[in-house]
Design brief:
The complex is a heterodimer. By secondary structure, chain A is mainly beta. Helix content of chain A is 0%, strand content 55%. In chain A, strands 2, 4, 5, 9, 10 and 11 form a 6-stranded mixed β-sheet that branches. A 5-stranded antiparallel β-sheet of chain A has the order 1-3-8-7-6, with no helix packed on it. In chain B, strands 2, 4, 5, 6, 9, 10 and 11 form a 7-stranded mixed β-sheet that branches. Chain B has a 4-stranded antiparallel β-sheet with strand order 1-3-8-7, with no helix packed on it. In chain B, a hairpin with a 5-residue loop joins strand 4 and strand 5. Chain B is globular. Classes of the chains: A mainly beta, B mainly beta. The interface between A and B is medium-sized, with 22 and 23 residues.
Chain lengths: 110, 113
């Protein structure tokens, strides 16, 4: 089992749609969780941290379920500019290593 | 504010040639520094990390090496490049381990021919 697994994608959605990305992680001792966004041929950029109580930033909502070792990202009212690859990232767990998921590609079309 | 610089942006090197990629961080002291590689269509693979000057941990056996001669400087090197070394190399820094996320440099796209 991979340490961090994401939906395979790609997701193709129309503008205005709601899209959800899922991610599971294997290390129950993991302590920090993030979603990153990576545009084509660019570096990943932090989109948002994920907190145990869930958190929202505008159109983006992140959820964490520690019992199921599951993280999600919900994007509401998708924009063309949301087209990118979304990386689930899990850190801590007793070491320095932060594990990046392989990413899920999102295409938002007009 | 903190900034991270990475260069060059693109590089085409022949097989067997040496490599040196440099990464510098400004505006913070004693950052954790990381080198990642991303192959085409793949996830990020951690190559090296450093928690201080001269302290390097290697995650993946390969023909690459890393050095941290200054607190703000992280260098990725190879004596002889292989075709399989092609990829997108990213330097990143963080405060502490992982609880605040990573900030990445703009990356170096290396093609070994």
């Amino acid at each position: 089992r991979k340490e961090v697994e994401q939906d395979p994608g790609p997701f193709n959605v129309p503008e205005g749609a709601t899209v959800a990305f899922n991610c599971t992680y294997s290390n129950s001792a993991s302590q920090s969780f993030f979603w990153y966004r990576q545009d084509c041929r660019k570096e990943p950029k932090l989109l948002m941290s994920v907190y145990s109580s869930g958190n929202e930033d505008g159109r983006f909502t992140a959820q964490l379920n520690r019992a199921s070792q599951y993280i999600s990202l919900l994007i509401r009212d998708s924009k063309l500019s949301d087209s990118a690859t979304y990386l689930c990232v899990v850190g801590g767990g007793g070491g320095f290593k932060t594990i990046f998921g392989a990413g899920t590609r999102l295409f938002v079309k007009a | 504010s903190q900034t991270i610089h990475q260069w060059p942006a693109t590089l085409v090197q022949p097989v067997g040639s040496p490599l040196s990629l440099e990464c510098t961080v400004e505006g913070t002291s004693n950052p954790n520094l990381y080198w990642y590689r991303q192959a085409a269509g793949r996830g990020l693979q951690l190559l090296f990390y450093s928690v201080g000057i001269g302290q390097i941990s290697s995650e993946v056996p390969q023909n690459l090496s890393a050095s941290r001669p200054q607190d703000w400087q992280f260098i990725l090197s190879s004596k002889k490049l292989l075709l399989s070394d092609s990829g997108f190399y990213l330097c990143a820094w963080s405060v502490g381990h992982t609880n605040y996320g990573y900030t990445f440099g703009s990356g170096t796209r290396l093609t070994v021919v």
